[in-house]
Design goal:
mainly alpha, 4 helices, elongated
């Protein structure tokens, strides 16, 4: 499962950087690489969204797998 966790984290970084570029410079890197709302762009956006959902729903399980103690239980 750590591979899925790492993949989700990488996708979230990609998404975060893309949104940062959109906010700061009005530049959508995903659209620039794959084309504005092309099939591949949509796949990237969907994968980033699924990664966020995965991380959000599974944060307790991820902490347990990685051996992280939660300070607020």
């Amino acid at each position: 499962m750590k591979k899925v966790d790492v993949l989700a984290a990488v996708l979230l970084v990609v998404g975060g950087l893309n949104w940062g570029l959109v906010g700061a410079f009005n530049f959508d890197l995903v659209a620039a690489i794959f084309g504005k709302m092309s099939a591949m762009s949509k796949v990237v956006y969907i994968l980033v969204g699924l990664a966020a959902l995965y991380q959000g729903l599974g944060i307790k399980g991820i902490k347990q797998r990685w051996g992280v103690q939660s300070s607020a239980s």
